[in-house]
Write a structure and sequence with these properties.
Elements lengths: L2 H29 L1 H23 L7 E8 H6 L4 H7 L3 E8 L1 H13 L6 E5 L3 H6 L7 H5 L11 H5 L2 E2 L2 E2 L2 E6 L2 E5 H6 L9 H15 L6 E2 L6 H7 L7 E2 L4 E2 L4 H15 L14 H6 L5 E4 L3 H8 L8 E3 L11 E2 L1 E7 L6 H11 L2 H11 L12 H4 L5 H7 L2 E2 L7 H16 L5 H15 L1 H18 L10
Parallel strand pairs: 1-2, 1-3, 8-11, 13-15
Antiparallel strand pairs: 3-14, 4-5, 6-14, 7-11, 7-12, 9-10
Helix pairs in contact: 1-2, 12-20, 19-20
Keywords: Signal, Transport
Family: Belongs to the bacterial solute-binding protein 1 family.
Subcellular location: Periplasm
Length: 474
């Protein structure tokens, strides 16, 4: 319930209390004397009972599960709750919608104040942070005891986002990744017979489109205010983005430097404009008028392109898997996952809610409400997804999606990727300089993590060393 709704209820309660108080007072004056005061007391007591009954009508003996969810999804998931409560009449779910911009701060504040909910849907990159805080309940035992919830049915990258040091702390709710939307007609005009699958094919296609469209239009949009385009190229490398257990950046690895070189070439050859999303008034209109032919973005834009592009362009765009160095490439597994908080006294009831929202049929209802993609392969057998040609590339891409590095500092490092990527695109840094700068910035952000891990290693080594034999020493 939102603050405004609580305020409305409080205001209504105050008006009811005021009316209840005025009635007995008038009765006392009309009757008078001792009997009048007794009658007035009885009337006031009856009014109080009615008032308390109206305020506590939800105290019906059911277990109340507090569920926090972010943004639009938090609004839509409330429509799925009545069926869960019908199937579980002893449980009532209290959904609280969190604004996306303040959700992380609110969760940390609730953790500090020991007021976390029972269950929450959090961004996949937050799982490691709350696991480090020891705020999350490990889920392996519950997963194993829930026959309908099979880890092997989930896309591996999506499932792995919730696994920290070999233990599962989260169950994916919905999954997203980035891949190119493209103009089929413009590729055909440029002589490109099929969507590119490798970086070399993609470069050939972009060069051909640029020759076709001229100096005032481009082949691809890599928005400079987003880290995802460069990050999705970089995660295709064989080497990890961080090294030594997440202690240091690994952006000077050969694989990531090749990704930086590909990204830099797209701007140097003027295949991509030096622009952010905010500098383009309407990306859908610009895509429709051919300002760019490839646009790397997430699954929510399927609905946007269907809605915003004119009818005569609806058969001229499509989605494709993200090209890689030597074939279809990997991408970052994003989305949100369910977690149980360790301090919850209602974990059994909260787990039933997670299991229900994870059922393929429920996931498909949620997809119909939001357009978010389900993380389970079985859910993709539903006609709504099987028959959607724009979703097929995402189904293929999700098989190669990989989790971002599982360190609490990752989102800060991703912002540095965006900033350094912008300098690289503008020619202010070379590839080698950009790689070194990313390592420098990441190492600075990870400094506290290194200290904590080193301290833990020293304690473990000390506890593992054999005790001094009796009589040894001074």
């Amino acid at each position: 319930m939102g603050l405004s709704a609580r305020a409305q209820r409080a205001s209504a309660a105050e008006r009811t209390a005021g009316a209840a108080g005025r009635g007995p007072a008038r009765a006392a004056r009309s009757v008078g004397g001792r009997w009048g005061r007794r009658i007035a007391s009885l009337l006031m007591l009856a009014s109080l009972v009615l008032l308390l009954g109206s305020c506590s009508g939800r105290g019906d003996g059911r277990t109340v599960v507090k569920f926090w969810a972010m943004g639009f999804e938090g609004e839509m998931v409330a429509r799925l709750i009545p069926e869960f409560e019908r199937q579980n009449p002893d449980i009532r779910v209290q959904v609280q919608q969190l604004p996306i911009t303040s959700a992380h701060e609110k969760l940390l504040t609730a953790f500090a104040g020991d007021s976390l909910p029972d269950v929450c849907a959090i961004g996949n990159t937050w799982v490691s942070e709350f696991a480090l805080l020891d705020a999350l309940e490990p889920l392996d035992r519950r997963i194993a005891a829930t026959p309908g919830l099979r880890a092997q049915d989930y896309f591996a990258g999506a499932w792995d986002t919730g696994v920290i040091d070999g233990r599962a702390y989260a169950v994916p709710w919905y999954v997203e990744t980035r891949l190119p939307y493209y103009r089929r007609d413009l590729l055909e005009h440029a002589g490109i017979a099929r969507p590119p699958q490798t970086w070399d094919e993609w470069k050939t296609a972009m060069a051909a489109i640029k020759r076709e469209v001229g100096p005032d239009r481009y082949a691809v949009l890599f928005p400079l205010n987003e880290p995802e385009p460069l990050l999705n190229l970089g995660i295709q490398a064989d080497e990890p983005l961080l090294r030594d257990g997440g202690r240091y950046g690994n952006f000077r690895s050969p694989g990531f430097k090749r990704a930086l070189a590909f990204y830099r070439e797209a701007f140097a050859q003027q295949w991509a404009p030096l622009a952010s999303n905010t500098q383009i008034a309407n990306v859908w209109n610009e895509f429709g008028r051919g300002y760019f032919s490839f646009y790397v973005n997430g699954p929510w834009n399927i609905a946007e392109f269907k809605r915003r592009l004119p009818a005569d362009l609806q058969d001229k765009w499509m989605t494709m898997p993200l090209p890689g160095e030597h074939g279809p490439g990997a991408s970052v597994a994003g989305g949100a996952s369910f977690v149980l908080f360790r301090g919850s006294p209602r974990q059994d009831a909260a787990w039933k809610l997670i299991a229900y929202l994870s059922e393929p049929a429920t996931q498909m209802r949620f997809h119909g409400l939001t357009g978010n993609l389900p993380p389970r392969r079985e859910s993709w057998n539903a006609p709504a997804l099987v028959g959607d040609p724009y979703a097929r590339a995402f189904r293929d891409q999700l098989e190669r999606a990989r989790p971002a590095p599982k360190v609490p500092e990752w989102e800060r490092i991703a912002m540095e990727i965006k900033l350094v990527g912008e300098q690289l695109a503008n020619g202010r840094l070379t590839v080698d300089q950009a790689a070194a700068e990313l390592d420098r910035r990441a190492d600075r952000i990870l400094e506290k993590r290194r200290w904590m891990l080193d301290q833990a290693d020293q304690r473990a080594a000390k506890s593992a060393s054999p005790a001094a034999a009796p009589g040894e020493g001074g």
